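Q: How would the structure tokens look for this protein?
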Amino acid sequence: MRDAQGRRITYLRLSVTDRCNFRCLYCMPADGLEWLPKAEILSYEEIAEVVRQLQPLGIRRLRVSGGEPTIRPNIEVLFRLLKDIPGIEDVALSTNGVKLAQGAQGWRDAGLDRVNLSVDSLRPARLIAIARRDLGLDPVAAALAAERAGLDPVKINTVVMRGINDDEIEDLARLTLEHPWHVRFIELMPVGEMSGLTWEHVVPSVEVLERCETALGALAPADGPAGNGPAAYYRAAGALGTVGVITPMTHTYCGACNRVRLTADGRLRTCLFGRHEVDFRGPLRRGEALASHFARALAEKPPEHHLLQMDAGGLSALSQVGG
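A: Here is the predicted structure in token form.
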């Protein structure tokens, strides 16, 4: 199916929880949020049923997100349910990596194809300061565990914040020299209650790439790994991996948007930073078919977000919709 702008929608992001074991500066208030009641959260079987009904309408690729999805018990059950749906080509996971070392192989065996790992610092003390939690995370060890388990490609996402972690751009880029990983630098999106982060903290992707070239030498455009995102990729000579940039603040990519999002409480959100949502939980639990609701959602999907006008679509935190 296509939306009103003619964009083919093939990619569904599934938020399975609004909770997280981190409180990252750019994602969630330090004191957390008012959590959704358990009765309002979709079960794994309900999530799978939504996908089962949307797959014939064009959904091919899935990403499981949160909050932090791996804190929901037995997440491998969901991976197995999703992978068993005919026509689903790819099941990916976004995670902070805390549970990757212990869970990666089991998740791969259950049907998970690949992983995006959030890494906002390689320095232990700074990682704790950004996450506002000390859970003993070693991000390089987490990425190695994912690679060993066959979760391929391994993508590392870094939200770049001027004066907070931008002095690590070069160190993160160097990971691509010796590892077949794809390090993507994401422009900070100052939204909602994270008012302490402003435009002054945004590091444009052009500057990021210049600093990567300082560390790696000349970068050539690269095809990059398989996936659904809007990153532009580059490779240094002889590097096993790639460097990527994602540019929501300096170069919007709404014209090529192929995605919608299902929130943990069963609302289909058609734009990350839009206000438009369609309730799926109610019709699902009443036993109604979802096709007409999906068609209405796509017909009303906005042509672009308004983040550049500092309108975050009513979000108080990115963790509410899984980013």
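The chain is about 25% helix and 20% strand.

Residues 11-320 form a domain with the TIM Barrel fold (CATH 3.20.20.70).

Upvote if useful.
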